[in-house]
């Protein structure tokens, strides 16, 4: 398995996240993309063994980090791991099971379909995620519950076929639009979720929601390459 970890200004969390990834029990290649961090994240990463470290000289966004990592992928399965503690690597088993059983090509980890523990936080974020997923489902004809989830796993073959253009969080709706047109077997599994507050470093805001809506329209109706 190749685990891609885009990271931007997560000096307080990244070492703990990578430790949990290594403890997951799965043989994996860990590709960390330091996306122009300015808070000392680079120094923390320099002291961590067992990772392949890639760097951007300035912040370019999550989508750009994934494109940087893709040529280095060596695993049969690719999994995206955010660089904070909102998503728990102990959920890897649930994410990988449909792929390992030969049932799925792409697996979404849903924050809204699981029985695991969920931190109670922002109503408007939940509503925004639900609306974006609803609009995305209307155009893709999928029945996802959490299009915007940070946990997505897919086969290396899917990774090779994907053509992604978005640099930032618009990656999520673009990815969904493109895999929906690729005649793939898409599964969704429940995961736990420990959301952060903005004071703890949460970065997604209402502007990203507007951008996501733009990307839903763009990649489902206009840019279908």
Q: What count of domains describes the coordinates?
A: 1
Count of beta strands: 7
CATH architecture: Alpha-Beta Complex
Which fold does the CATH topology refer to? Spore Coat Polysaccharide Biosynthesis Protein SpsA, Chain A
Oligomerization state of this entry? single chain
Poorly predicted ranges (pLDDT <50, ≥5 residues)?
Answer: none
The neighbouring-strand order within the major sheet is 3-2-1-4-6-5-7
InterPro entries: Glyco_trans_2-like, Glycosyltransferase_2, Nucleotide-diphossugar_trans
Protein name: Glycosyltransferase family 2 protein
Domain Glycosyltransferase 2-like: 2-157
Organism: Geomonas propionica
Note the topology:
Elements: E1 2-7, H1 14-22, E2 29-35, H2 41-46, E3 52-56, H3 62-69, E4 77-80, H4 92-100, E5 106-110, H5 123-140, E6 152-155, H6 156-161, H7 171-180, E7 186-190, H8 206-222
Parallel strand pairs: 1-2, 1-4, 2-3, 5-7
Antiparallel strand pairs: 4-6, 5-6
Helix pairs in contact: 5-8, 7-8
Structure write-up:
The longest helix is centred in the middle third of the chain and has 18 residues, at 123-140. α5 (123-140) packs parallel to α8 (206-222). Helices cover 37% and strands 16% of the residues. α2 links the parallel β2 and β3 (52-56). The chain is globular. It contains eight helices and seven strands. The model has no long low-confidence stretch (mean pLDDT 90). It is α/β, with parallel strands linked by helices and 225 residues long. It has one domain: Spore Coat Polysaccharide Biosynthesis Protein SpsA, Chain A (Alpha-Beta Complex). It has a seven-stranded mixed β-sheet with strand order 3-2-1-4-6-5-7, sandwiched between helices.
């Amino acid at each position: 398995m190749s685990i891609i970890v885009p990271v931007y200004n997560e000096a307080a969390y990244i070492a703990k996240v990578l430790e949990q990834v290594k403890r997951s029990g799965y043989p994996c290649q860990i590709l960390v993309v330091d996306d122009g961090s300015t808070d000392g994240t680079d120094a923390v990463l320099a002291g961590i063994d067992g990772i392949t470290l890639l760097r951007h000289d300035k912040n370019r966004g999550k989508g750009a980090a994934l494109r940087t990592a893709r040529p280095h992928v060596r695993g049969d399965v690719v999994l995206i791991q955010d660089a904070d503690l909102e998503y728990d690597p102990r959920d890897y088993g649930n994410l990988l099971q449909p792929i390992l059983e030969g049932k799925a090509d792409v697996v979404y980890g849903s924050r809204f379909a699981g029985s695991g523990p969920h931190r109670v936080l922002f109503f408007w974020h939940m509503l925004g995620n639900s609306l974006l997923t609803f609009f995305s489902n209307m155009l893709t004809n999928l029945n996802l519950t959490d299009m915007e989830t940070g946990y997505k796993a897919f086969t290396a073959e899917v990774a090779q076929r994907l053509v992604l253009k978005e640099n930032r969080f618009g990656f999520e709706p673009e990815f969904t639009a493109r895999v929906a047109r690729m005649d793939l077997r898409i599964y969704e599994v429940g995961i736990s979720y420990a959301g952060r507050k903005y004071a703890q470093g949460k970065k997604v805001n209402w502007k990203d929601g507007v951008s996501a809506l733009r990307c839903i329209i763009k990649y489902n109706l206009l840019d279908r390459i």
